[in-house]
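Hello,

Our lab assistant flagged a job as stuck in the queue for most of the afternoon. It eventually completed. Since we weren't sure the result was trustworthy after the delay, we are filing this so someone can double-check. Below is the sequence as submitted and the structure that was eventually returned. Let us know if re-running is recommended.
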Amino acid sequence: MRKLIVLAAAMLLSATGLFAGVLMELDRPEASELQIGGFELMEAADVEIEAVGRRSDDMGRNWFSSDRRDNAMSVAAWVLRSDTREPVWELSYDDSRSLKGSLRRGSEQMRLEPGRYEVYLFSHHREHHWRQQDDDDSLLERMFKGKVSRIEDDLPECFIRVTTRDRVRSQRFEPDGAMPNTLVRIHETGDSQFIEEAFELTRPATVELYAFEERSGRHASDYGWILNLDTMERVWTTDDRLGRHAGGARKNRMVKDDVQLPAGRYVLGFGTDDSHAFPEFNATAPLDPLNWGITMLAGQGFDRSAFRTIDRPEMIPSIDMTRAGDGEVLEAAFRLDRKSTLHVRAVGEYSSRDFFDRGWIVDASTGEVAWEMTRRNTVSAGGAEKNRMFDGPVTLPAGTYQAYYMTDSSHSYVDWNAAAPFLPEAWGMAIAPMEGARIEKLDLDEVEADDNVLASIVRVSDDVRERDRFRLDAPTRVMIYALGEGDHGEMYDYGYIVDGDGRRVWRMDYDETRHAGGADKNRSYRGDLMLEPGEYEVVYVTDDSHSFGEWNASGPDDPLAWGITVRAQ
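-- returned structure --
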């Protein structure tokens, strides 16, 4: 399918003069084409706007819907005032009359004040084939016999024309959608884009944001944000603002907002998924398609001397576990010589209440999780709703740490089963030092072993029985941490401990476990046990399904510990 944008550059007038007749005309669109033209009036004029468009094929399916105007025109036409970005006329289903088949005609006479005006003609090609067989009409086709026509036959008859009988001074121009008082602008944003522009404010200021988003329900597929570079925190985003309908398809949303920013360094960003962006909108385009993206304008009392654009600092990770594919367990170790704030960027897959691809950081000396991705601390990563991202500061005490990133068997870098995130290559986790921090990367075998660990059987796979032994020379209280699979009062993956005489001194019983995160059958036990001096054997048993790296449901919150660890207290 050919998709393109046609600008009316060839129609520019070389000089301004008295003029009566056609101010602007766009016609004969091709399938999936956006035509744009502009004319400027130096004085007020009475004009007539007329257009022939095409109702959407969805109208047949939604004929009895109370909201027939939404996305009703598959060939749409409208006129926009350049300085306000507001429409002055639009061809709509309700304000037009049927010509033949799917074609509709609308017109209106009005008075236009001096200024610049933009004319749009948009066609998207999303034909529904109602015919069940070549020689058999479907029920819908029989219901609307004579009211449906092929889009290929209709396009040559579609147009929009603006004319005047007044002799007025006018000229044509090539619209670019620019607005006065613009500070930073990301516009005409296409599919699969991630664009950031950095700026600095030396004094607090109020800025006005004019942004678009593609939103279905609560989820925004295309959206904009502001990131504070000094704290690495998002201070504003359209993703948590519903905005208002931006014209065209229901999923086109527009946000206007005044935001007060303290002095500091910031990034203005906008990201899109793999469909419905400029100019290749897969449903009716918004009324201001040239500004699909985000624009930051000077707000009330803005002092331009306090503003300047800067280069966006590049994240140079000390720990890079990105571009993670299916079924991977990525590990890295590092040491901090002082309390430090790190920049962590982690992108993963979240669905319902669990992460299937996620990153976390463990204190190597205690085995406790120091930081992890959660639903609350992540934001939309763009693309599919299940793509989530943490991109911000993490402060850790001095010490040795292990970083982990793990994926399940689907939807990861390169091999997506839904729309990819804005930054597909960031799938995984990266860690970089922020100002004043220093990360010493370690080999995994450099991480000091915990001297208190008496036995450890972890990362256990299907259908195994593993053993480990330890000896106690004095009465000792031990801490047992075990994860396994259990359901309906029975454990299928579990651990137990026997003494030197073969007597079982502890077993992982279902009633003493609790939910370990993920699927309900993931169970964990953490508790103390007093043991007398002697020899002991730790055993861990799994059945033929749902174990480390081979989950048949959502894995636990601490998947690497699947098994049993015994530590002296």
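-- support follow-up --
The delay was a queue issue, not a problem with the job. The result is valid. The chain has three helices and 40 strands. The CA atoms of residues 182 and 297 lie 4 Å apart.
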